[in-house]
Automatic annotation (TrEMBL):
It is a multi-pass membrane protein. Keywords: Cell membrane, Membrane, Sugar transport, Transmembrane, Transmembrane helix, Transport. Its main location: membrane. This is Simple sugar transport system permease protein. It comes from Kaistia geumhonensis. It is found in: Cell membrane. The lineage of its organism: Bacteria, Pseudomonadati, Pseudomonadota, Alphaproteobacteria, Hyphomicrobiales.
Length: 357
């Protein structure tokens, strides 16, 4: 099967899944809303209703892309570590500490905080990888437990050292302007984080498809036993993939706290977005270049659901149903309706055109 046919088939499957999910969402809105047409219009067209909502959509999509990228790296290695959320809190806390230090008054605070956040996230990604390689610890359990630890340590550090008394110990003071990502469009959340997210996508694609490390990682993911017979150090590949994934998660934490959306650190700043990266990675089939497009599509639905929750009588939880349906349809190897009939017709036509021998 050619790459073009694979791309066409995958795109068709994703669009079909999205259409089914939207149809289900419409049915729910028809049942739950007193003004279903206005509600559905808000859900579908709301993200484009103003410059601010467009900015929120783009910003959410950039964060979703980074979360999906982090999950896709470990999924490529056939590891099911779920520690991105903890890595986000670790990275965000370190970035906030730098932004609120004297270093935050200088422009170097942005690159220094990004590097420090990536190192913090990488360390948190390394732990379950090393435990899996050396102690055969289950990476799902260890990474999930680390999420709780990282979340509580981040909140403890915030309340003890970073919080402003005026906020009731739930948020820090606003960061200095020099420590906040500059906005490309005034009064929107379209800022430097979008560029960092796209840069991370390009770097991960290059690492996966243009380096020996990426080839070894993909071979390990396809068949770990064959990779071991080929002399590939699968444990090293697994640990390095989880560490690299952690670095991306840490960078995502810096995007959260230093972006135009917050410009400070607050309790629970990540809001559960990190776990939605699982959907992005699954739908994109762990392909780095597909992740930004999937993130844009899902980010649009997510923003539409949020606006629907604010402006209408239908809660935003509808997006959870849409998310579940899309995952079910895309993750399962379903066949598009009518495809077998179409193939039979096309096959019959080809046979009829074929010359007799």
């Amino acid at each position: 099967m050619t790459n073009g046919k694979i791309f066409f088939d995958e795109t068709r499957r994703i669009l079909f899944a999205a259409a089914i999910a939207l149809l289900v969402a419409l049915v729910i809105i028809l049942i739950a809303s007193k003004a279903p047409l206005e509600t559905f219009e808000t859900f579908i067209a709301g993200p484009l209703s103003s410059k601010r909502t467009v900015g929120n959509w783009i910003d959410d999509s950039a964060k979703l892309a980074l979360a999906g990228l982090a999950f896709s790296l470990v999924f490529q290695a056939r590891q099911f570590a779920l520690g991105v959320q903890g890595q986000v809190y670790a990275g965000g806390t370190v970035a906030a500490a730098i932004a609120l230090s004297p270093l935050g008054l200088s422009w170097v605070s942005i690159p220094v905080a990004a590097i420090a956040a990536m190192m913090a996230g990488a360390f948190l990604g390394f732990i379950p990888g090393y435990a899996k390689a050396k102690l055969n610890a289950n990476e799902i359990v260890s990474s999930l437990m680390l999420n709780y630890i990282a979340y509580d340590i981040a909140n403890l550090f915030l309340r003890l050292y970073l919080a402003s008394p005026k906020s009731g110990l739930t948020a820090s003071e606003a960061f200095p302007a020099s420590a906040v990502y500059p906005a490309f469009i005034a009064r929107t959340r379209i800022d430097l984080g979008v560029v960092l997210a796209l840069g991370a996508v390009a770097i991960v694609w290059f690492l996966l498809y243009r380096t020996a490390w990426g080839l070894r990682l993909r071979l390990t993911g396809h068949n770990a036993r064959f990779a071991a017979y080929s002399g590939i150090r699968s444990n090293f590949i697994m640990v390095s993939a989880m560490t690299a994934s952690g670095a991306i998660g840490g960078l995502l934490g810096a995007l959260f706290v230093q972006g135009q959306g917050f410009a400070k650190i607050v309790v629970g700043f990540e809001g559960g977005l990190s776990f939605e990266g699982i959907l992005i990675a699954i739908v994109a089939r762990n392909r780095p270049l597909a992740i930004p497009f999937v993130a844009l599509g899902y980010g649009y639905l997510r923003q539409g659901a949020a606006l629907m929750g604010y402006r209408t009588d239908v809660p935003a939880e509808v997006i959870g149903i849409v998310q579940g349906i899309v995952i079910l349809l895309v993750a399962s190897s379903f066949t598009l309706p009518g495809r077998a009939l179409l193939n039979r017709i096309m096959g019959g036509s080809s046979a009829a055109r074929a010359p007799s021998t």
